[in-house]
Amino acid sequence: MRRKEWYDYIGITAGTLITALGLVLFLVPNKIAAGGVSGLATVLHYVFGWPVGLTMLVLNIPLFLAGLKVLGWNFGLKTLYGTIILSVFTDTLTLWLHAPTTNALLASIYGGLMSGVGLGVVFRSGGSTGGTDLAALLFGHFLHISSGVGLLLVDAMVISLAGLTFNVELALYALLALILTSRAIDAIQEGGGYAKAAIIISDHAGAIARQVMEQLDRGVTGLAGRGLYTGKEREVLLVVVQRSEVSRLKSLVAAIDPGAFVIVSNIHEVLGEGFRQWRR
After folding, report:
1. Which residues cross the membrane (predicted)?
2. Residue-wise pLDDT tens digits, 199-210
3. Are residues 91 and 28 in the same domain?
């Protein structure tokens, strides 16, 4: 097995452990069924007394087999590994850990964030925990809808079931946890340290580019541009900098061309020289 494969499985293991902690410490003890198979397993746990981890595994088996038949091996062995180990972690940790809070708001916030961080690590490692992902893909295949809409349908049904089983207030907390989980997944997937991208349009593009490379030690890309109103050809500069360098960049541009047109926007992740390196 290649080194990257080992790193991926380590990442999946760590991510499922964090997700299981979110379930065991916060979500399940406080009856917060935040969508997906884990949410459905939480409802079934309180209705029938079934272990959450084992229930997740049992629910995932037909989804995995259906996915194998319909979607092929695209989701691979990493999904099977993530599904099994999340169930094992959940039931094992339940024997040793107890909820640190009975406040539903705190539980939904911390449980949602921990689950999202864990799932984000799993996804970033090329894995999955099955469940909602597979159900959404199957919904999309049979109902001819996007996986995003399929995901929304699955989670909406689980949260609605939680509202009927517990109460509307807990369903609202589950929705909050689901939103936080989604945001945390995005943050982990896209990278937490935001950089800034600047697009600079100026008649002094050459001078600005030289100063950026000399003063900020950042690369500059020149793009061919044309003003549609004036019909004038000019070079457009693209610069990516750290957040701490934005003020210096704006001052540098203003000193050369106070009339320059500058657009600064957020970037979630930058890979390459001067930023985070590619993982091999």
Report:
1. 7-28, 48-68, 105-123, 135-153, 159-180
2. 999 999 999 999
3. yes
